[in-house]
Write a structure and sequence with these properties.
It is a single chain. The protein is mainly alpha-helical. It has three domains: 86 residues, Dna Ligase, domain 1; 61 residues, no CATH class; 148 residues, no CATH class. Helices cover 49% and strands 8% of the residues. It has a two-stranded antiparallel ribbon with strand order 1-2. Strands 3-4 form a two-stranded antiparallel sheet. A hairpin with a 5-residue loop joins strand 5 and strand 6. Helix 2 crosses helix 3 and helix 6 runs parallel beside helix 11. The protein is elongated.
Amino acid sequence: MRLTLLFTFLAVGIGIAGYVLADFVTNSAGRNESAEIILVQPGDGDNTISWKLYRHQIIPNRFYYFLAKYTLSELFVPKVGEYEIPARSTLAKTMGILNAGVSLQRKVTFPEGITSQKIISILNKSPFMRGQIIDVPEEGSLFPDTYFYTHGMSRHEILKKAEQKFEMTLAELWSDRKANLPITSPRQAVILASIVEQETGQPEERALVASVFINRLNLKMPLQSDPTVIYGLEKKGVAPKRLLKKHLKEMHEWNTYMLRGLPKTAISNPGLASLQAVLNPASGDYLYFVADGLGGHRFAKTLDEHNRNVRQYRKFMADKNQQETIRK
């Protein structure tokens, strides 16, 4: 009986000590002072994963990993993926993250109004994705937005998402368009929206700018949009630092000073607001607009009024430049 009692006490003592040790190992704060990224790849076993946790200072000793794995109440099966382990994360929390298999979400953003070439450049430079995009999609076919991806995702998959979102958004907006617009197809709407996108960065002006171009199309007037001229020159390999009068007379398929109607293609990838503005423009008789020097525009119904606005803009800019010269 004495031996039985002795072994019983020893067993209980060992059990308590083991429980205390396991609790200490799994619930002690990690040594990593900042968040760490752990990548679990196909074929990674316990040895590899324990080394990664040790190298990132999440555990002070690889023994901790094995002790925790075989003492945790739940089965631990780390999933392939990329995981962000918070600073000072306990081993129990870390193993829970690896076991859940919810990979780190990275993101890539395509700003409104950039060209397809620039979107492809952003996508090809985004890290931790596979495959390079070679062919540049049609201008005005990619929806500007933020897209999320996980480690190892194909860049072509992100590109497909951008194309599908553009098609779905355009179809929805086209079905709710204003009646009697001089736009006969969704593609024409995209072309005009891409011009509006480049003409103003002021949200409250988009519908008004769109109405100017709609009125000009109705009257068979040239759109006379500077961004279309610049785009055409860039397509020809010429990128002027400043748009001059001679550039407005240079013939190409995007020169809306020389040609009536819409240019050959879109000149950028317009965002939602510009598409909405074109398909539901403001009401009014404005036919002209010019910058006001403060980030917005002055609108006019007649050429005389427009010319006055142009003179005011030039005077404003001359005064501004003079003041800047004095300050220097």
